[in-house]
Structure formats: structure tokens, C-alpha cells
Write a structure and sequence with these properties.
Pfam families: Gly_acyl_tr_C, Gly_acyl_tr_N. By secondary structure, the protein is of the alpha+beta class. The protein is built from 8 helices and 13 strands. The chain has a 7-stranded mixed β-sheet with strand order 1-2-3-4-5-13-6, sandwiched between helices. Strands 8-9-10-11 form a 4-stranded antiparallel β-sheet, with helices on one face. A hairpin with a 7-residue loop joins strand 2 and strand 3. Helix 3 runs parallel beside helix 4 and helix 5 packs across helix 6.
Length: 276
């Protein structure tokens, strides 16, 4: 596969816009990579400029549960050929793939042919997006809002559903230091509600401490972060677990939409030792 150079990423973004929502996640990845001075990911295509498969993957060797490979494809057979007939992925290592759910059976066949175990993290996600955040209402709450600080890593890691102690702290620290975020602070300057941005540009990891819920903080922070991302030229979207109806209803109330024909999922191959 061809690794795209910096000057080719803009053209890739223009092409990907024609394939939303299927290309939304890789579009978010490429948006960030295109602007970053340093980003440890490669953008690969099967051919250029008329690609059928675009793949974003970390360019370091150490397997990492949360630095997954993100894939967009127009042609499942083309993707299958790449996964089975090239060395773009090392099937002896732990691999985490983010891809459209409809490719699950094909991935099972690929895993079987490579003799590796595969498991699906969660059944599926709603992909919620907002084209124009200017429609969002102005925040009327009397709250103190700040960006999330590096000193908040331990708190956020301890409350995150997928937090794995020291193993996931580096990922959260990277998100805080490199991507937009915001939080509500209490009178002592400590965060009580927050939302971050993942390396694929999706908003996420939102959480409010139990004693501070039902005050409108989540709605306010989604509004603030969505406007910030949009003002900086990034797409505004997020993934919501199908079981998380509370977040789903909140986003729908703010004007986020979804394409019901599309579902995304994360698939893991091999096992990863949770050693920092």
C-alpha cells in the first residue's frame, strides 16, 4: 500500500467527504494528522488517487489497545485481499480494527485464515454527527469552564468505562495535551464534568461526577466542544454505544443526526498483555 505524503492528505480529505458516514472516522483521523506537526500514524491507500481502501494505523511496533487501525473501504473484496495478501498488518501481534460492522463476517474469515482469535468489543455504535454547530443554543449556565489539564488524568482514567489503570493513562494524557477538551470546575477549581476528543477527532469520554448530575453540565460541554471543533475546522461527531440511550437522547435533542444504515464496531485480534 502507498503511504500518503503530507501534501496528499488534503486531497484525500476532499475525496472522503463524498462517502460520509462510512468515511467519517478516517476523515476525522486524517483531519488531525493533516494539521499535526508530529503524529505517529500513517495514512495508507491501495492506489492513488482513486483509492478503494484507506487505512490509518500507528507507525510504531509496540501493540497498543487504544491505538487502533481505522479502515474505510468502498470494496469489501479489495479490503479482504489487502488483509490476506499483504503485510500491512502483522497478524502475530495484537490488532484492534475500527471498521463498519457489515464487514464482520469477512473479518472472521480473515482471522480464521490467519489462525488468530477475534472478538468484538461492543455490538455496535451509533455514529452521531452535527453539520452546523451554530444551531446550538448559547450556554446560559453560570459555570466555570476550562480545558482539561494534565493533572486531571488520574481522575478521568478512574471514571472511564474502559480505563485500565496505568495502561490507559498515556492515551488519556495524549488526548488532553493534543486535542480539544473542556470541563466544568467546582469552587475549588476541580473538574466535576468533562468531555475530551479522541485521536480520530470524535468527541467522547464524557462523564459527570454523580453528585453533580442533572445540572445540565453534559449538554453545556457538548455544545462548547462542538463549537470549538467546528471553529478550528474539524468535523463534529461521536460514537454512542447502542445501549447508552441517555447520551443518545441528549445528542438528538441538540440536533445531532445519524444514518441508520451505518454501524461501526471495534474488532480485536490476538490477546494483549496489560503491561504498561
Amino acid at each position: 500500500m502507498k503511504v500518503l505524503r503530507k501534501q496528499e492528505l488534503k486531497k484525500a480529505l476532499e475525496a472522503l467527504r463524498h462517502y460520509f458516514p462510512k468515511s467519517q472516522e478516517v476523515y476525522g483521523c486524517v483531519s488531525i494528522i493533516n494539521r499535526a506537526e508530529v503524529d505517529h500514524r500513517d495514512v495508507l491507500v491501495d492506489r492513488w488517487p482513486d483509492f478503494s481502501v484507506l487505512l490509518v494505523k500507528p507507525n510504531w511496533q509496540k501493540p497498543d489497545f487504544f491505538n487502533q487501525v481505522s479502515i474505510f473501504t468502498k470494496d469489501e473484496s479489495c479490503l479482504r485481499n489487502i488483509l490476506t495478501r499483504t503485510d500491512v498488518l502483522d497478524w502475530k501481534q495484537f490488532i484492534s480494527l475500527s471498521v463498519e460492522l457489515q464487514h464482520e463476517e469477512m473479518l472472521k474469515a480473515v482471522a480464521l485464515s490467519n489462525g488468530v482469535p477475534m472478538n468484538k468489543m461492543i455490538n455496535g455504535y451509533h455514529l452521531m454527527s452535527l453539520e452546523d454547530p451554530s444551531i446550538l443554543p448559547a450556554d446560559k449556565l453560570s459555570i466555570q469552564v476550562s480545558s482539561v489539564k494534565e493533572s486531571h488524568v488520574a481522575l478521568i482514567n478512574s471514571t472511564w468505562k474502559f480505563g485500565k489503570g496505568e495502561f490507559t493513562e498515556p492515551m488519556i494524557r495524549s488526548m488532553i495535551l493534543n486535542y480539544p477538551s473542556c470541563c466544568v470546575l467546582d469552587s475549588e477549581g476541580q473538574p466535576v464534568s468533562w468531555i475530551l476528543t479522541y485521536s480520530n477527532c470524535a468527541m467522547g469520554m464524557g462523564y459527570t461526577l454523580p453528585e453533580h448530575r442533572r445540572k445540565g453540565y453534559s449538554k453545556a460541554l457538548v455544545t462548547i466542544l462542538a463549537k470549538k471543533l467546528h471553529s478550528e475546522g474539524y468535523p463534529v461527531y461521536c460514537f454512542v454505544e447502542e445501549e447508552n440511550q441517555l447520551s443518545y437522547r441528549l445528542l438528538k435533542s441538540l440536533g445531532f443526526t445519524e444514518d441508520l444504515s451505518y454501524r461501526n464496531a471495534w474488532f480485536n485480534f490476538n490477546q494483549l498483555s496489560l503491561t504498561p
